[in-house]
Structure formats: structure tokens, C-alpha cells
């Protein structure tokens, strides 16, 4: 299949194995059998009818191809599934199959059941990423590197604080996913449990809905949510936020792996990153897979966002448009996080390259602190001009920035003599002494991340 070559490599292979047509049918069957059980427990289905149904389907194989073909005429997989299920049952049980339900109840609940283990897997992967990031933060809280703005060298930071920002973004996304609810769907034809009211009981349908949620291990909805798509909106945007945090990590790593920078490298593995024509290449393939997956998640999210407002009591195409983007987003994110966990756990960090790049401008990135040092002596405008000219001279001649500054000041500014020593210039132009709150940020982030580990399941 074409998808195996251009779509599935970006997804989690375990998730793909667990989210297939058979899994969807199993989830729809779980809904129907649970519905029969809760109705039987409340006297709406004869005693032992739900057990007889379960035993029938244990020996029954649904025709997946026929269900797939039936979607074209019914508009969703539940309609041909329900028909097949009813046909497989003995005559005395047929009337109790799918009682009070509609196709949207089946499909929405089945999707929630499919997504539940996926959210658990995403949480586990994000915890792996957090653990690996904490190790990197601790190991590199004093590893000085260039901070870059608008793709240009700016001022020094530490690699530890860079990792801390990745880790916080991922953990914030994890917390957002952790509180998402996967609600049961059960409302019947127009979401008011038509035909399920009994003498003095207009809440019987809601009672069934709540019991169904408990039996299936899903969240209890306030009301049926056939055209109230807030649960789907929250799921899609939560997945997208996690994809964005994962993509940020991959983007930064891929930029830092460039040959001219070489500050980090992806974990080495046989055949990983090879080129079809250039033997010397070691491409950041894990980053490419992460970013490719994340971009697809972003696209899927726009589909779901544009389907949030659905007409009257049943969506006309909007509901149908949600299914594939929602499941694909979960599978793509899981694939991206599998790569991200491996990336963080085995990331090769090259402090010597970071030091080399700090010196690439001859130390000119320290012009800002030098200007601050000079301003009280020569004035603000002259300080900026002197620090900039010295930075350019240092870059062109390859001499240390502090040395060039000292020579220029002695040559052209007699009023500086005795007021600014060369040691002052050296301190002002030392990147390791101009890190702001970098180390404190790593400590604070470490404390926050460890606190999440202790308090959030």
C-alpha cells in the first residue's frame, strides 16, 4: 500500500498495529455489549441477554471488507456494523441489539476507546523525554554556547538552559494531554434518548449514559455531545500543542547539527541519516521525521477546528471529517515522540564546537557588555561605536576581542587611561561571565520538572 511508504513511517508502528480496522470493530462491539449490559442491569433487557450476545460474538467474525464497503452508502462504519451484528444474533436477541443508540453514539465512543491507550502511550513517551532532558540539563548547566536571534549570533547562554526550554514545552503539553477527558457518547437519534423514558423516569437515558461511561472506563458527559464538539476540539488542540513542542526540539537540534556549527549530533545508528548519493552525509533524519509528523498534525488540526460548529442535531460532513485527522494526529504524535525520546536520550553534545563558534566573531558577540562598560567613561554613542569597530577588527584579523579593544582605546581615547584596565575588558568580553540567569533558570526548571514528576500521574 502507498500509505506504508509515505504515511506510516512518520507514525508509531505499535500504534498502527493497535489502531486498525479490526480494532475499530472491536471498539464498536465493546460499546454495544456494554450498552446491553447496563440496560439489562436496569431491567430494560431480559436477564442473561447481554451474556448471550457476548457469547455469540465471541464465535463471530465480522466481515471488515463488507463494513468498509457499507460506509459509502451509510456514511459511517457503524451502520453496516450494526446490520452485521443484528444478523448474527438469534431472533430473540435482535430487538435488544443497539437499543436506544444511534450510529454517532457507536462511532464517537469507539474513537474514545481507541484513543485511550494512545493517550497513555503519549504520556509515557513524554515522561521519557522529561527524564532524558533533566539529565542533559544537569550535565550542561555550565556548557556555554552562542544564543542566536533571527538566525544570527546574539549573546551567550548555556546549553542547559536551551534544553530546559525544550523540556518545559514538552511537559506543559503533557500536562495538557493528561487532563483531557474522553467522554462516552450516548444520546440516540436526536441526542435526547428518545424512547427510553419509563413511567416517572425521564432520566433513564442519562442513567444509561452514565453507567455506560463507568463500564467502559470513559468520562461521564454532562449531556450527549453529538454536535457539541468541544471534546474533539480539546483533543485535537492538545495533540497539536504537543506536536509543536516536539517540533521545536527537532528544529533546534537540526539547526545545531549543521556542518558549519556541529554543536550537537543525532544519536548514531547503523544506516541512520545516510544519503543516497553522498557517502559523507549524516543527515538529521530523526528531526526530519519529527518535523514531518508535526506538520501533518498541524494540518489535521485545522480540519478539526473548521468542523467545530456542526448543524442542528447531526453534523453533515463535519462529523465525518473528524475521524481520520483525529486518529492520524495521535499516531503521528506518538511516532514523533518515539523519535524525540531516542533523540534526547542519545543526543551527542559537542562543547568544543560551541567554544569554537563563540570565538567565530573574534569575541564580537560581547560588544554589548563591553559597550555597557565603556559608556560611563566615553559616553553611550562612542561606547557603541568603539565596541562595534573592535568587534569587526577582531573578526577580520582573528585577534582576541579584548586585545583589539585595549589597543584601540589606548590609541584614540586618552581619557580612558587608568579608568578601564585590560582585565576589565577581558572580564566584560568573557562569554562565561555574561550568562544572566541561565544557571538559575536551569535550577528553577529542574525543580519545576521534578515537582511535576512527583505530583502529576
Automatic annotation (TrEMBL):
<dbReference type="GO" id="GO:0016853">
    <property type="term" value="F:isomerase activity"/>
</dbReference>
<protein>
    <submittedName>
        <fullName>3-carboxy-cis,cis-muconate cycloisomerase</fullName>
    </submittedName>
</protein>
<feature type="domain" description="Adenylosuccinate lyase C-terminal">
    <location>
        <begin position="362"/>
        <end position="446"/>
    </location>
</feature>
<dbReference type="InterPro" id="IPR008948">
    <property type="entry name" value="L-Aspartase-like"/>
</dbReference>
<keyword id="KW-0413">Isomerase</keyword>
<dbReference type="InterPro" id="IPR022761">
    <property type="entry name" value="Fumarate_lyase_N"/>
</dbReference>
<dbReference type="InterPro" id="IPR019468">
    <property type="entry name" value="AdenyloSucc_lyase_C"/>
</dbReference>
<comment type="similarity">
    <text>Belongs to the class-II fumarase/aspartase family.</text>
</comment>
<dbReference type="Pfam" id="PF00206">
    <property type="entry name" value="Lyase_1"/>
</dbReference>
<dbReference type="InterPro" id="IPR024083">
    <property type="entry name" value="Fumarase/histidase_N"/>
</dbReference>
<dbReference type="InterPro" id="IPR000362">
    <property type="entry name" value="Fumarate_lyase_fam"/>
</dbReference>
<dbReference type="GO" id="GO:0016829">
    <property type="term" value="F:lyase activity"/>
</dbReference>
Amino acid at each position: 500500500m502507498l500509505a506504508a511508504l509515505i504515511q506510516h513511517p512518520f507514525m508509531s508502528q505499535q500504534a498502527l498495529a493497535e489502531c486498525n480496522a479490526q480494532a475499530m470493530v472491536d471498539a464498536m462491539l465493546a460499546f454495544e455489549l456494554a450498552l446491553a449490559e447496563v440496560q439489562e442491569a436496569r431491567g430494560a433487557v431480559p436477564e442473561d441477554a447481554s451474556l448471550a450476545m457476548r457469547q455469540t460474538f465471541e464465535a463471530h467474525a465480522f466481515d471488515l471488507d463488507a463494513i468498509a464497503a457499507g460506509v459509502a452508502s451509510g456514511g459511517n462504519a457503524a451502520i453496516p456494523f450494526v446490520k452485521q451484528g443484528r444478523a448474527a444474533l438469534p431472533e430473540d436477541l435482535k430487538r435488544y441489539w443497539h437499543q436506544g443508540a444511534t450510529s454517532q453514539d457507536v462511532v464517537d465512543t469507539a474513537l474514545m476507546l481507541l484513543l485511550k491507550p494512545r493517550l497513555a502511550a503519549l504520556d509515557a513517551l513524554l515522561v521519557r523525554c522529561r527524564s532524558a532532558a533533566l539529565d542533559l540539563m544537569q550535565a550542561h548547566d555550565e556548557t556555554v554556547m552562542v544564543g542566536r536571534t533571527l538566525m544570527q549570533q546574539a549573546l551567550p547562554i548555556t546549553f542547559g538552559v536551551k534544553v530546559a526550554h525544550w523540556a518545559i514545552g514538552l511537559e506543559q503539553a503533557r500536562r495538557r494531554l493528561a487532563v483531557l477527558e474522553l467522554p462516552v457518547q450516548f444520546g440516540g437519534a436526536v441526542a435526547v434518548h428518545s424512547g427510553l423514558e419509563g413511567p416517572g423516569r425521564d432520566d433513564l437515558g442519562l442513567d444509561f449514559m452514565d453507567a455506560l461511561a463507568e463500564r467502559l472506563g470513559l468520562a461521564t458527559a454532562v449531556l450527549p455531545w453529538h454536535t457539541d464538539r468541544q471534546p474533539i476540539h480539546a483533543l485535537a488542540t492538545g495533540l497539536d500543542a504537543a506536536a509543536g513542542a516536539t517540533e521545536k526540539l527537532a528544529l533546534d537540534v537540526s539547526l545545531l547539527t549543521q556542518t558549519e556549527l556541529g554543536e550537537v549530533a543525532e544519536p548514531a545508528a547503523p544506516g541512520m541519516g545516510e544519503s543516497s548519493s553522498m557517502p559523507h552525509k549524516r543527515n538529521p533524519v530523526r528531526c526530519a521525521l519529527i518535523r514531518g509528523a508535526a506538520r501533518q498534525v498541524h494540518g489535521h488540526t485545522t480540519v478539526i477546528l473548521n468542523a467545530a460548529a456542526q448543524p442542528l442535531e447531526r453534523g453533515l460532513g463535519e462529523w465525518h471529517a473528524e475521524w481520520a485527522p483525529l486518529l492520524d494526529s495521535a499516531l503521528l504524535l506518538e511516532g514523533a515522540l518515539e523519535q524525540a525520546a531516542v533523540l534526547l536520550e542519545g543526543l551527542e553534545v559537542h562543547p568544543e564546537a560551541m567554544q569554537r563558534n563563540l570565538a567565530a566573531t573574534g569575541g564580537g558577540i560581547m560588544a554589548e557588555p563591553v559597550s555597557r562598560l565603556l559608556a560611563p567613561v566615553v559616553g553611550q554613542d562612542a561606547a557603541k561605536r568603539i565596541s562595534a569597530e573592535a568587534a569587526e577588527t577582531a573578526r577580520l584579523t582573528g585577534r582576541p576581542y579584548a586585545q583589539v579593544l585595549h589597543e584601540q582605546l589606548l590609541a584614540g581615547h586618552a581619557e580612558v587611561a587608568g579608568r578601564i584596565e585590560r582585565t576589565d575588558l577581558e572580564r566584560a568580553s568573557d562569554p562565561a561571565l555574561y550568562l544572566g540567569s541561565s544557571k538559575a533558570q536551569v535550577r528553577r526548571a529542574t525543580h519545576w520538572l521534578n515537582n511535576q514528576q512527583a505530583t502529576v500521574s
